[in-house]
Amino acid sequence: MAVNRTGNYCAFYVAEPFSESNLNANATHDFVYYNTLRMWKGKDLRFPFIDSHSKTYSVRDGSTWETLKARLRARLDVSKNIILFLSSKTVNSRAVNEEIEYGINSGLPIIIVYPDYNEKAQLLDSTGTTFNQSIQSLWNKLPTLKDNMDKVPTIHIPMNKNLIAQSLNDIRFTINGKGSTRGRYFYKV
Q1: Taking Cα atoms as reference points, which of 19, 43, 23, 131 lies closest to residue 86?
Q2: Of 171, 82, 186, which is closest to residue 129 (Cα–Cα)?
């Protein structure tokens, strides 16, 4: 049976144990950016974000790692790409590592959003042809991403609503549209 891969899976660091229902979750640095996408979608139904997290049951506090891992994989299995929030506060947790590794091994393209930046030029060096050192340093926070990001198409963008919408609408960064494209991309300045 064919899987309907229409969702956008959001990967972000949160400290464990995690509960979306408590106030601390909504103040967690990277979780706030996921909520921003949900807010944009709530205000504008044309915003092209389809939340894969809402396609399966929620995980309860106290769930085992195996239960959480199964739920993460189920959500990734109905997704057409991953939106990864990579910030100065991101930490390489077991969950983020699992999301990235499973997603890359499943062939999911990754839209990497840098919340600490809001302009395309801020991600690039002075020539505008490659990523600057501060962006490359962020990759060191997630070794699984750094070591494997050339296996799937990755687009690198700042936290900018229009650029996120452009990326979500860009067929090259979906599992069905990527073809044999791989590597690191950015939208030209």
Answers
A1: 131
A2: 186
Cα distance between residue 136 and residue 55, in whole Å: 33
Around Cβ 141, how many Cβ atoms within 10 Å? 17
Helices (H), 53-159: 65-77, 94-105, 133-139, 143-148
**Whether the bond into 109 is cis, omega within 30 of 0:** no
Show pLDDT as tens, one digit a residue, over the chain (189 residues).
Answer: 456 799 999 998 876 654 555 555 555 678 889 999 999 999 999 999 999 988 665 655 566 888 889 989 999 999 999 999 999 999 898 999 999 999 999 999 999 999 999 999 999 999 999 999 999 999 999 999 999 999 999 999 999 999 999 999 999 999 999 888 899 999 998
Task: Give the pairing type, strands 7-11 and 110-114.
Answer: unpaired
Reported pTM: 0.90
Nearest CA-CA partner of 93 in 105, 81, 84, 80: 84
Nearest to 157 by CA among 129, 178, 186, 136: 186
